[in-house]
Amino acid sequence: HRKYSWVNVMSRCHAGCAEVDSLTEAVAGEGFLLGCISCKRREEVSARATVDWHFKPQQEEDFRHIFHYDHPAAAVLHEDFSDRLEWQGTLNGDVQIGAVYIQNVTFNDTGTYRCTFHRTLFLPLQLENVVVEKEVELTVVAVANRELTAVISEIVMYVLIVVLQLWLIVVMVHCYRKIWDEHEAREARRALKAQGLLLGSKENCDGVQAE
């Protein structure tokens, strides 16, 4: 499966930073990208940010610190995610994309993930510290569920195919009946013409005999 990168997506976006919600359903045994984007209010202001990820397993009360990024260093902080988390966010100190990639997802990864930006804005007169938190409710399934829109689109496609086939049959039947009616009319005209010729010949014969 191809790894999805927020960095690649954002680098192709000429309109600037755009906050997009993370996907929320992962498939066991596959990789999954936990998305987290926090855009600066003013793009022209220089800044530096660190990102922390915390995880609260399903049916537990407390979050556990699992990942920390302070450019250029990335650190996995919990043994359950050892060798399974990879930074997929901004590759400089002014972090706006804080995505991490989970390798080999398990059912134990189901739960709530909290992404926290600690950002320092270098304003002309002073520094401003900003904290932004976002949460992702992740569900792990055995098989990927199909998107409802994809299912609806497929149903509509099949319905259209059936309707078009029925319409084609109706058109073919109509054309066949029209051709057959024209054939019958042509044969009837020929029969009338032949009958008229036959009657004319008979009248000529009767006239000759009378003379």
TrEMBL record:
Keywords: Cell membrane, Disulfide bond, Glycoprotein, Immunoglobulin domain, Ion channel, Ion transport, Membrane, Signal, Sodium, Sodium channel, Sodium transport, Transmembrane, Transmembrane helix, Transport, Voltage-gated channel. The keyword Ribonucleoprotein does not apply. InterPro entries: Ig-like_dom, Ig-like_dom_sf, Ig-like_fold, Ig_V-set, Na_channel_b1/b3. GO terms for cellular component: voltage-gated sodium channel complex. The chain crosses the membrane at residues 155-176. One of its GO terms (molecular function) is sodium channel inhibitor activity. It is a single-pass type I membrane protein. It holds the Pfam family V-set. Residues 29-139 form the Ig-like domain. GO terms for biological process: cardiac muscle cell action potential involved in contraction; regulation of heart rate by cardiac conduction. SUPFAM superfamilies: Immunoglobulin. A voltage-gated sodium (Nav) channel consists of an ion-conducting pore-forming alpha subunit functional on its own that is regulated by one or more beta subunits. Forms homodimers and homotrimers. SCN3B is non-covalently associated with alpha subunits and induces the formation of alpha subunit oligomers, including trimers. Interacts with SCN5A/Nav1.5; regulatory subunit of SCN5A/Nav1.5. Interacts with SCN7A/Nav2.1; probable regulatory subunit of SCN7A/Nav2.1. Interacts with SCN10A; regulatory subunit of SCN10A/Nav1.8. Belongs to the sodium channel auxiliary subunit SCN3B (TC 8.A.17) family. This is Sodium channel regulatory subunit beta-3.
